[in-house]
C-alpha cells in the first residue's frame, strides 16, 4: 500500500525490536501496513488485528482481502484512461471526495505525487497527480495485490478509533502504534490526534501489562514515566518529512515499555 508515513524502508529495523512471546498483534494506526506485512511474513504472532480511523483506507484493505479481482479490474480501467488523458486523475479525485469510494482511493494513492496523501482543512483529498509517473503498471499490480491478498487472510481488519481496542487487549498481547506524526496540518486524515489521548492509552496498556512499541517524531510530548526505552532512528526517510524540513534535522523515535 502507498500511504503517507509508510515504514516500508524501515520495516525490518522496526520489527527487530518487537517481542517474540506475545499472542495477538494489534496495529491501531495501520496506514500503509508495512509493519503488519512484515510481522505476518515472519509469523511472529498467533493472531493479527489491524485498524485505522480512516474508512476509505480500511475499505481498500478489505477489498484487497475479500475482492482483489474487482480492485485490480477497476485500477486497470482507470490506469488506461489516465494514459489517454492526464486530467482524468482530477475527475477521479473529485468523485472520491464526493463518494469516498475505495477503488478511487486506491487509484489515487498509486498515482498522486510521491504517494503523498494530503487533505485540505475540510477533509477533502487534494494531492496533485505525479506528472513524471503513470502509477504502477497493471502487470506489476497484479503480483502486488496477489501477495497482499495472501498476507491479509489471517488479519482481522476494522475501522475504529484506537481506544476501542481497550475492550479486547490482554496482558499477553502486543500493540504497535504509528500515529500521525507531530507535523503541520494537511497530512494523513484530517481528524487531529489529541496527544493526551494517546498518552492515556499508553498508560492504560501499562496497567494491563500489555507490551507496546510507539513510533513518533517528538519525544518532548511523550512522558518518560510511560516508557522504559527510547531509541532514536535517523534512518527514516519518509517522503512527507522531506517536504517539511531538512532531513539532517529530523529524528524518528521508537518508544517501548519493555
From TrEMBL:
It catalyses: a 2'-deoxyadenosine in DNA + S-adenosyl-L-methionine = an N(6)-methyl-2'-deoxyadenosine in DNA + S-adenosyl-L-homocysteine + H(+). The keyword Heme does not apply. It is an enzyme of class 2 (transferase). Its EC number is 2.1.1.72. Keywords: Methyltransferase, S-adenosyl-L-methionine, Transferase. One of its GO terms (biological process) is methylation. Pfam families: MethyltransfD12. The keyword Phosphoprotein does not apply. InterPro entries: Ade_MeTrfase_dom_2 (IPR023095), DNA_methylase_N6_adenine_CS (IPR002052), M_m6A_EcoRV (IPR012263), MeTrfase_D12 (IPR012327), SAM-dependent_MTases_sf (IPR029063). One of its GO terms (molecular function) is sequence-specific DNA binding. Belongs to the N(4)/N(6)-methyltransferase family. This is site-specific DNA-methyltransferase (adenine-specific). It comes from viral metagenome. The lineage of its organism: unclassified sequences, metagenomes, organismal metagenomes.
Amino acid at each position: 500500500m502507498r500511504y503517507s508515513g509508510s515504514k516500508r524502508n524501515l520495516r525490518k529495523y522496526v520489527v527487530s525490536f518487537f517481542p517474540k512471546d506475545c499472542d495477538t498483534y494489534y496495529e491501531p494506526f495501520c496506514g500503509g501496513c508495512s509493519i503488519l506485512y512484515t510481522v505476518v511474513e515472519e509469523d511472529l504472532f498467533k493472531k493479527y488485528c489491524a485498524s485505522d480511523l480512516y474508512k476509505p483506507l480500511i475499505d481498500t484493505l478489505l477489498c484487497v482481502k475479500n475482492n482483489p479481482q474487482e480492485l485490480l479490474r477497476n485500477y486497470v480501467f482507470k490506469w488506461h484512461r489516465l494514459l489517454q488523458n492526464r486530467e482524468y486523475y482530477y475527475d477521479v479525485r473529485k468523485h472520491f471526495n464526493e463518494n469516498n469510494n475505495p477503488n478511487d482511493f486506491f487509484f489515487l494513492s498509486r498515482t498522486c505525487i510521491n504517494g503523498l496523501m494530503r487533505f485540505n482543512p475540510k477533509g477533502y483529498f487534494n494531492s496533485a497527480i505525479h506528472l513524471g509517473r503513470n502509477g504502477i503498471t497493471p502487470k506489476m499490480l497484479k503480483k502486488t495485490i496477489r501477495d497482499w491478498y495472501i498476507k491479509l487472510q489471517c488479519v482481522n481488519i476494522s475501522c475504529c478509533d484506537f481506544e476501542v481496542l481497550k475492550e479486547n487487549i490482554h496482558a499477553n498481547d502486543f500493540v504497535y502504534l504509528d500515529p500521525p506524526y507531530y507535523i503541520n496540518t494537511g497530512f494523513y486524515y484530517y481528524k487531529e490526534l489529541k496527544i493526551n489521548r494517546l498518552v492515556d492509552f499508553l498508560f492504560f496498556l501499562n496497567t494491563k501489562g500489555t507490551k507496546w512499541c510507539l513510533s513518533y517524531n517528538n519525544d518532548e510530548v511523550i512522558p518518560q514515566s510511560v516508557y522504559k526505552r527510547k531509541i532514536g532512528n535517523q534512518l527514516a526517510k519518509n517522503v512527507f518529512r522531506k517536504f517539511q524540513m531538512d532531513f539532517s534535522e529530523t529524528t524518528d523515535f521508537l518508544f517501548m515499555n519493555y
